[in-house]
Amino acid sequence: MPELHILGIAQDAGHPHVGCRRPCCLPAWSHPAAGHLVSCLGIRDGERAWLVDATPDLPAQLNTLEALGASLAGVLLTHGHIGHYTGLMHLGREGLGAVGVPVHAMPKMHRLLIDNAPWEQLARLGNIALRVASAGEEIRLSEGLTATPLLVPHRAEYTETVGYRIVGPSRSVLYIPDVDVWWPGIEALIESVDLALLDGTFFTPGEAPGRDPSEVPHPPITTSLERFSTLPAAIRTRIRFIHLNHSNPALDPSSEAAAHIRAAGMGLAAEGESLSL
Known about the structure:
Layout: E1 3-8, H1 26-30, E2 40-45, E3 48-52, H2 58-66, E4 71-76, H3 82-85, E5 101-105, H4 107-115, H5 119-124, E6 128-132, E7 139-142, E8 145-151, E9 162-167, E10 172-176, H6 186-191, E11 195-199, H7 221-228, H8 233-236, E12 239-242, H9 256-263, E13 267-268, E14 274-276
Parallel strand pairs: 3-4, 4-5, 5-6, 10-11, 11-12, 12-13
Antiparallel strand pairs: 1-2, 1-14, 2-3, 7-8, 8-9, 9-10
């Protein structure tokens, strides 16, 4: 039976965050077990496994899958921001020295990789085999296991952005770690799956120190809670927030912020959690 593994829940730069000496990160600098890896999913079917995004934490995340007896069968990329593709460097000759790992990328993401060093070297040396994905078209991973890229609105400095609808024999999962704003129709997508892992980067507007919210737009969790409050209770329980910034108080499951999410009938993704697909 295929399984989904949550291999990380933090925003692109992880937790603790580089250069942060605030209370949100200090404990994790002193005690690494208090930190969190960058948001990533693992999909495992027997001895084969796929990563949804190649994060800077790829070595640890791939190790988790290998410890379960699986080897890397492919990577599904969401977009061209640093926490979502730069882990591909670990597949090169200075790292794993991988051979022909399929990397599924949307057209602009494909061009970014094939036209720019050092990424083009991975393809030229055969460490990766780039595959162009199309929005709305299933990527067949194995018998009864598919992943479908879905275009979502997000900053497009370099590439388009997609989430994925992952469907196994018994369960389906929606994964949207990055989005600028929830659009009409997101509720129907949530209702169509068994689990929805959604962008929870910030808890409240403007919480990131020294950052203009207009430059890094994400729907704050407080806004998402209000938006999805009209969904039936049984549907709200399918929502779990992921991709949390180091400033997000909900990273601490004992916090008032986390309690507020639970009181609204929703939840938080948990690093290390797995479920059958």
